[in-house]
Amino acid sequence: MKNSNDPVVLKQHIIHLQSELHRYKQEMVKLKQLSEIEKLQQLLEELTRLKDEIKEKETKINVLQDDLHKVESVKEKAIIEINTEKHALQTENQELKQVLKDYTERIDNLKQLVSIKEEAIIDLGEENHVLQTEKERLVKDYNERIDILLKEKSSLLKEHESKKEEKVEVNKNNEWFYQNVSNINRKNKR
Question: Quick check: 36 and 30 in contact, CB under 8 A?
Answer without folding.
Answer: no
